[in-house]
Structure prediction request, 737 residues.
Amino acid sequence: MGKGLAIAKGAWSRSSVVAAMTPALFLYVAFSVLPSLGTALFSFTDVTQVPGKAWSFVGLDNYREFLFLSNARDARDVFERSLVYALATTIAQTAAALVTALALDRPSLRGRGVYRTLVFLPVVLGVTVTGLCFNLFFSIDGPAAAFMRLFHIKGGVLSDFSRALPTVIFIQVWMSMGYEMVIFIAGLQNIPKELYEAASVDGAPPGRVFARITFPLLWPTVAVNILVCIIGSLSSFQIILVTTRGEFNTKTLAMAVFAEAFGVSQRIDRLGRQGYAAAMQMILFLLILAITILARALSARFERRNS
Amino acid sequence: MKGMASVIATFLLVFGLVMGASAAGKEKQTIRMITWSNQPTVDALTAFNQAYMEKNPNVEIKLEVVETNQFPAVLATRIAAKDVDIVTLDSSYFSLDQVPWAKGFKMPQWQSQMDAGVFADLSGQGFVKNWSTGARAGTYKGKVYAISTGANLITGIYYNKRLFKQYGIDVPATWADLEAACKKLKDAGVAPMTCGAKDDWPFAMLANFAVASVEPGNLALAEGLWTGARAFTDKSSLTVFERLSELSSWMEDGFLGIDYGSVVGRFVAGKAAMLPDGGWQAPTIKSADPSFEFGYFPVPSDKAGNQFQGKFDAFLAVVDSSSVKRVCMDWLSRFSEKANYQNFLDTTGFIPTMAGVSIRDPFVASLVPYVKGLTLAWELSYRAPTGVGKYAEQRGFIPVYLKEAGGELSPQELAAAAQKDFSDAAAKLK
Prediction:
């Protein structure tokens, strides 16, 4: 017994832990930390996508150009749209995932494994497949257009200034909701069943059970999901790129960074000014950091009030 | 014994060297090419590549075709990764690189690439003298960096001859004629026009049409915007916005959702009577339905006798850092031979940029009277200041913001917005 304990203790010695973490740490540093530091450094240069073109350090010129020299209206639109996109996606996605998780966590529901799989399937499909499918669905000859014609509704969906952004938000939520649902289900399953039994004995209605037992105990999971969703929606551009390429009032700051870095939109100069794009990315990073700090502060305050 | 060993060793050494040299001589060399998804151009290049590979068995040519609206980004990535040897370029105002009146304009990617020496200088190559306008168009700062394989007309409108005959419409000679024709078609329940607007550039290209119909001498307008002599809000420019609005109102319902790849099919199927598009689309229309009867007329202005405007197109350039540059130059040299270029022209339907070749395509031949020296289209003259707002980007006259196109602005409001964006950006550069 003592020998077994000694062996068990040795298996978890500090050096073993470090050795086990090293490969993951290496990958994290190589593919996350170093590129991020690189982006920060390049934001002070005029590097472009053009090979062989000499580049130099330009100090704060890129930041100055984005904040003061570029069109203020367009920059403000992009910021506002990013916040609207993040807020709408976060609220809709979290609410939908929570409701779905509650519905699919009931032990009495037959085939809940199948339903969970179906809800999770869009996560597995990937951005390109999802975007292409919705492009076809909303195309001029697609089912959505045919349905709209029945009600004499003119115009497109992804090619309409007023409909494109809500549609992209819907697609984002549809695509990512399954991931949050899985996390919520794990959180729900950690809530002690005895609490529900006690509530049942006391005759508490379902609404009160949710408000007094489920939600408070699930709050840490909710907070994590909200934070991940905010960060993800502020920094994602992929679904926008595949569906609208940032046109029709769908360009968020993340999409603008990608478009600037790789010249993907026909509306902007196809220069691939990556130093300038890096500066925009740093501004986006600061925005995400500020919102994350605020969200954590609000979350902690809510937890303290609950406890 | 020693002598025998040294003879054998020497024989083996020589044998190995000879075999190694032979292997190196027979080593396959690969040319990586990239072009955009214009099917006739792809077909023409594929046919030439096939013939070239048959004559040069140690050369393999890989032609990558990229969707047009993704081409600039993919091209830049391939060049940066040194993953391409011969490229197709569409920018064609190399001769207008000197624009002293536009200090601080947004430099296009091709210009940065040429300044950085991305493309090989072809000036000293023997095949350059085969080309007439093809080499001149590809000259930048006195050196030839690319060869234009053909000129294309931009400001033309394809029309369905059957529908025109059915509704008694003559080919419009003036803008008023075009308005009348579109009204007649609309009243009959026929969409006057269609456009692959989902890809953005086919719709944005209509700025060339609107400017050509009002101000054929567009370079003066481009310069005037910078010097203050002209404005987006003056009477002539306002007419351009109004015509853009009219063009938008003539498009079929939901045109903003039509991608460029399917617009020919819709035109040929009779979903719209007209298709404003470039001359490069003609072979595609013909191959979509050989029995489909269509014509092409220049966008009319207020007076009859209009001319097409266009650009030099489909430039071929060799990447200077290519590891197979010598083979690429040989490829380009063979391409520049009259017989090979003739085959290319017959497939693409381009207007020739080499003297002494025939226009065999009847459609292209029918356009010759309208082309008396190629006038460059508006998009090649306009320069946007760095940091300009969205209403004055790219071609300046941007139709997608107009109410008739689903946007929110009237022509007057868009003109004012474009002028404000242009002036604000230009002022910051002073």
Chain A has a mean pLDDT of 88.
